[in-house]
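Subject: Predicted fold for peptide chain release factor N(5)-glutamine methyltransferase, 264 residues

User T.R. writes:
Posting the sequence so we have a shared reference for the thread.
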Amino acid sequence: MSVHPISATLSTTALALRRAGCVFAEDEALLLHEAAASPDELSALVERRVAGLPLEHVLGWAEFRGRRFAVDTGVFVPRRRTEFLVAQAAALAPRRAVVVDLCCGSGALGVALADASDTAELHACDVEPAAVRCARRNVGDLGEVYEGDLFDPLPGRLRGRVDVLLANVPYVPTADVELLPAEARVHEPRVALDGGGDGLDVMRRVAAVAPEWLAPGGSLLVEAGERQRDTAVEVLRAAGLTPRVLVSEELYATVLVGTALRIT
Ligand SMILES: C[S@@+](CC[C@H](N)C(=O)[O-])C[C@H]1O[C@@H](n2cnc3c(N)ncnc32)[C@H](O)[C@@H]1O
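User M.O. replies:
I've generated the structure tokens; pasting them so everyone works from the same file.
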């Protein structure tokens, strides 16, 4: 019986990955073997992973809410914990929702929400050209992806009409960026991580303008660190939104929802 040369080296690959510090070496080895079309390609993939590139950048995709999203090098890898934010958004989205995914990175959040809810319109934007290119591939004809600073590139006709405003903004305090694992610190763009002095600078900018774009009763959803929770609540309240905090112990996720007043 002939043995495929790639499958013959599965345990060797796992060993190389384990030596490089990969905790889930066996699982990763399987994924790399699946992805490689030839022994040369496998060597190249393993080499990149051993050199410290995030697995998702090596594979070119990340799994988010059970679906594979393209993630190019230089684009923030959507995190498992952010699935909680999308689940909360799906729970509060009205029928025929107008959804904006601000600071969209790969675009995974907006697409996952469209999968899970009745989305009439999806608009996504990011300031990073690499993220915008990647999001355009993931969003496809489900919606529009724009490039620019926060709300700047959005069409004006969305003002006052947004039912769900997803904004997984960067929220790592500047001084903590150096403490992040190398996979994030070295391989994800600083603009995707650094949230300024207390980590909430971008959130403050989003919250300040969000009420202009939200529909009556519409909600802004942001993620924050547990220690940022109380300040983040005040940020939303100061912007005129009604804040709520939602926590997933399982995913170690803290989500803040800021809801605009309903007109009665
Ligand atoms: C933490 S990442 C989140 C990406 C994506 N939402 C996700 O959860 O996978 C933050 C994203 O915000 C983008 N960003 C940072 N500052 C921005 C700004 N001023 N305007 C638009 N996008 C910005 C970054 O390029 C990055 O893609």
